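> Could you send the HIT-like protein prediction when you get a chance?

Sure thing. Input:
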Amino acid sequence: MSSTIKASTTSTSSGSGSGSGDTQRAHFSHFDVTEQVFLRTPHALGIVNIKPIVPGHILLIPPSPNITRLSNLPAPSIGPFFTTLQLVVSRLEEAMGATACTVAVQDGRDSGQTVEHLHVHVLPRRKGDFTPSDAVYAELEKWGFDATTGKRPSSAAAGVEKQGGPDDEDRPPRTREELLAETEWLRKLFRDVQE
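Output:
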C-alpha cells in the first residue's frame, strides 16, 4: 500500500491558527473541529478525540458533515476513505506501540451513533487494556453525547455497566493545550499525507 495520499483542498484566510498552515474550516456534524484536524485528504479528515477511551483514540470522518451514514458515502469516496483508514491504523498502531487496533463504526442512532456524521473510531490496543478485550465496545456506547442537548449521557442513563476501562465521567475532557499538542504530533506523523 502506498503511504502517500494526495490532497487537493482550498485554504481560506479564516485564521484558525491550527498550526499546520491549513486554515480551511472542518466540522464534525455542526461542531467546529478545525484545530483537531491532523490529516486532511479530499475524502477523509483525521481528528483528535476530546475524550479518548485509550491513548491515541482518534476519529476518521468524511469532510462533508452531510455524510451521516456509511450508506451516504459516495461510491468514488469509498476506496480512498478506507485506504486512508488503513494507513491511519497502520501508522497509529506502530507509533503508539500498540499490538492491535479496534476500528469501529456506529452507523445510525440505534447502533449508538450520537453525532450525525459518519465517523470511524480508531483505538490503538494493547493486551490487557480491557478485560475482557471486547469490553471496549461498552465504552464506545458511553463515549458519545446527545447532539441535540450537547450533554454526555451518564453511564447509568446509558444502561451500561463498567466492564473495563474508564467510565465517561472519569475521562475529563482534555485541555485545549493537550488537544493541540496531540494534533501537532499526529500532523508530523502524517505530514506526507497532507496537502
